[in-house]
Amino acid sequence: MTARAWAAPAASALVYTLVTAILGRDVLAHLGTAIANDPGDPLLTAAILHWNASHIPWSDAWWQFPIYYPARDTLAFSEHLLGLSVIASPIAWLTGSPLVTYNLTTLLTFPLSGMAMYALVHYLTRSGAAAFVAGLAFAFAPYRMSNLPHIQMLASFWAPLALLGLHGYVDSVRLQPDRRLWLVLYGAAWALQAAANGYALVFFSVLVGLWVLWFVVARRNWRALGMIAAATAAASLPLLPILYKYATVHAYHGFERSIGEMRAYSADVAAVLCAPTSLTFWGWIRVACRGEGELFPGIALAALCVAAMFYVVLRPGLIFRIVKIRPGLDTKAAGPPVRWIRLALLAMAALYGLIVASMLIAGPWSIDAGFLHVSATDIDKPLLVAIFAAIGALLISLAARASSPGSTLAFYLFAAVTTWALALGPTLTLMGETSGRPGPFVLLQGLPGVGGLRVPARFWLMTVICLTIAAGIFAAELLRGRRRMVAGASTALIASALLADGWIARIPAQPAPPPVPDSVALKGRIVLQLPIEPYPDIAATWRAATGGWTAVNGYSGYAPNYYASLTLAARSADAALFPPFRRTHDLDVLVADDATALKEAVERQPGVVRGLQRSGSTHYRLPRQRLPPAPNPGQRLVIAAVRSPCSSATVARVSDDDERSLWECGESMERHELTVDLGQVTPLGSIEYSLGPYAWNVPSQLSIETSVDGTSWTEARRGSILGELIEGGLRDPRSLRAALPFPPREARYVRVRPIAQPEEFVWFVAGVVVRAP
């Protein structure tokens, strides 16, 4: 390339970098003392990036991320971020600072994303101006601003490069010597994107699948299909050992995402009107907002893409005359069958739109005239039908262009609508009201890996990619053939509007956690930080990964099944939280100075040694404590019946040996009671109380009583069960069970009740087993 040819991309890169420096000025001013955005998720990902830079990936030591002692392979509890570490690790090796590494990497994601999109759109349009505005729109999109705490979502610069490789490969002359280099670019970029963001492994692969169907299968280019499949398989090879480790670790711990979590983190249909509050110009648009559901695309980007849809779908003559552009794309009309289906869907959308309008104006209504009975009482159903009928008509119109020479714009509009529909999750929600109707995401739930992704709304990242590409292609059409001055002014206007869409005052910088007392003495040791709460746990994770010790605490996408019990034990200053972690090693404990009850609990431990007090916490050392082995459980006794005044219809689940069949009682505390009938008087000495995989809802205390006749009751045990639950979780990571012994006695009935619980407590029981002495 000549120097003149390099001028446009170099100028674009400079603009992206300058904008990033302006937005990130606070971060740049405190590179080594603060962390970008907030000391929450950014601290976790900063710790992982530091870990990647100081350990050999794929090695056993790499998997042992130093949290949740004594659990192993804890890096698999969260994302590994290897696809981002190719940028971060060199910075870490040069600077030696985890904070500088994270902050610079976060800021670099903006110009890198902009230049990756620039490269793709420039290839598709041969227009430097269109490529510049597309790169600007992608780098500083509103959705990226809503994901500032999630660096893996910001690290989306590999995806446009993978698409560039695909376009370059199918567009190349078959015998072109360097044609396969495009496949190398695609494979490397696809693998790095998948390794940078676990969601992209699935969601971007879906986008690639749509791309292949459109540009390869629809054109019957079977040789290209085989070559792309081979490139994908080859690129997958470095990921397979990692995926296998994740699968085995998650199976061992019983990690899974519930359908309830997926629904909670799905986007509302109206979430395109939910903008991040940090936006300078559009932060006031807050319609149908929910967790991870800020899908506002930006006014300028939406306007460009809507205009592009009209350009592709409708007869373009009038539009051409209005905006004075030449039809550079093939926009020939679809055949009669496609037109009829499209017209039917448009008619349906119009009909149900009128029903919605009538209800907004006049309220619910009904018509009952003999055989004709029509009513409209709920706006939810007709509005959804109108929306999705219109979307169906649009998708059919776009798909009709799949084999035309100008199909690239149509594809990215088609893919934008499709991925937006997938972001709506397994159940459709409109204006905060769940319709109960399945969303398109259910079509993917059977695919490997999808069950572990709890945020379908993140499909919107693929939508942003597609919208940005479509806007860039359409901008090239708008600017094509214009005089230089007009084109320059138009480019500046479009760029300003797109930048305004995602403009924020600044990327905040928050102070890093203060150092702990005597950090040198903690190297290589087991450390428990108290209290146990999300933000202290994030700080504990950061300190362990960067300080060289292993933490009992942890913060990640998943946690061991006993961790809720450990957290509750810390909140109640229960001394049972220490012994399980002193069996094989000394335990160093850091306690916040304002946690008086916890300090007293530590100081009551046998052999405690008090250390330094600094930075708001005190260091204690608890020596290794050899505890007697747990007695062998007695014979399991047959349960004849289980009764309860609460949820009596399902109480039999307590004894069905299926720990996934849950009995729950959400009524008043007076009705929280289980009575086990053994059928006859028999010797007994313990019960096993199981939460199964539902380990987050822990009763801190139980009362266990026994009776011979069901009338006169004797207390067998009363008090905390948290230590036993922690021990049970360490024994069996898949199912949380507490073995609760009591003095042997003879009885027929055993009554179990939670005590000292908050009034809103809902009692979960997966199983109860009664054992002989």
Descriptive notes:
This protein has 27 helices and 19 strands. With 773 residues, the protein is of the alpha+beta class. The protein is globular and about 95 Å long. About 3% of the residues have low confidence. Strands 12, 14, 15, 16, 17 and 19 form a six-stranded antiparallel beta sheet that branches. A five-stranded mixed beta sheet has the order 8-7-9-11-10, sandwiched between helices. Strand 4 and strand 5 form a beta hairpin. The N and C termini lie far apart (84 Å). Among the domains are: 234 residues, no CATH class; 53 residues; 104 residues; 131 residues, Galactose-binding domain-like (Jelly Rolls, Sandwich).
Task: Briefly summarize what is shown.
The protein is α+β, with helices and mostly antiparallel strands. The protein contains 27 helices and 19 strands.
